[in-house]
Amino acid sequence: MALIKKPVTGMKDIMPDEMQIRDYVMQVIKETYRTFGFTPIETPCMENIANLSSKQGGENEKLIFKVLKRGEKLNLETARTEADLVDNGLRYDLTVPLCRYYANHANDLPNPFKALQMGNVWRADRPQRGRYRQFMQCDIDIIGEPSNLAEIELILATTTTLGKLGFKNFEIRINERRILKAMAAYSGFAEEDFDTVFIILDKMDKIGLEGVAEELKKAGFADASVEKYLALFDGVAKAEDGIAYLAGELAEFLDEEVVKSMQEIAASVTSTKTADFELVFDPTLVRGMSYYTGTIFEIAIPEFGGSCGGGGRYDKMVGNFTGKDVPACG
């Protein structure tokens, strides 16, 4: 059998000139984040399959590169389930490994803990333009800070870094998971249907408002609920202050503290930013990960034609390892 020169589909070789640029970019990222107090750490490329398949990673859990058991642990003759065959998997992001890392080392780490990670992740995805099966992620996270100071610092650190790399006129889109839920409840959707509604809403950029309406109706939701839901997005688009508009419309469903926190984040970031960007409230922003519990955000750079980063608050995730919830945002 002839050997194959090309890399595995969905992965790529990096040439010297590209490597030089990447090294420079990584150096700027690392140096800037360290000025904000973030500490570099490293986690293994493989995690226990139970951690990766714990219903925290959303759609990414369907894309795990699973690793077969080895030696005496693997018995193909008696294997009946996947658990008999697989014990580990390649990480699909850096957040799940970080939570395990924190749970394992919490007694030796400062509080709050500000982590910086740069490393490859792997997803068994269908390769296409701009989407690889192996790619590098750069994460910053703050664990142990319950207030919105974490969100403010994460946004400022990230935008400052992008500014130092020469990016201008980009957007930070921001939303809140509790606003998403309040909008769905107000419209008459049952709580057990929220995830289905959000999965469809997440397609807004690709199929538009009419496409979302059509898919919601195809999913069996009542016309009245769909129309009431879409009217909220229309109202935000027409309002001078979208957050204030929703605060009024969703008064019975949305905690005032959520609105206040969003307004504080917007005011603080806008008044202290050093990079050239706009902070934009976007009620259609969902983010695919099911572990988000509060604020969510995404970076949109026009030249890239889509999102090049994002994150949010995940206050329940560390608790899956420790049995006690720990505030976290990244």
Please tell me about this protein's structure.
- This protein has 330 residues and is α+β, with helices and mostly antiparallel strands.
- The chain has 12 helices and 11 strands.
- The strands form 3 sheets. It has a 4-stranded mixed sheet, with helices on both faces. Strands 8-7-9-10 form a 4-stranded mixed sheet. The chain has a 3-stranded antiparallel sheet with strand order 2-4-3.
Keywords:
single chain; 330 residues; alpha+beta; BirA Bifunctional Protein, domain 2; 2 domains; four-stranded mixed sheet; 11 strands
Protein topology:
Layout: H1 16-35, E1 39-40, E2 46-48, H2 49-52, E3 66-68, H3 82-85, E4 86-90, H4 95-105, E5 113-122, E6 134-143, H5 149-164, E7 170-176, H6 177-187, H7 194-201, H8 204-218, H9 223-238, H10 242-249, H11 256-272, E8 277-281, E9 295-301, E10 306-312, H12 319-322, E11 328-329
Parallel strand pairs: 1-5, 7-8
Antiparallel strand pairs: 2-4, 3-4, 5-6, 6-11, 7-9, 9-10
Protein name: ATP phosphoribosyltransferase regulatory subunit
GO molecular function, one term: catalytic activity, acting on a protein
Domain Aminoacyl-transfer RNA synthetases class-II family profile: 10-153
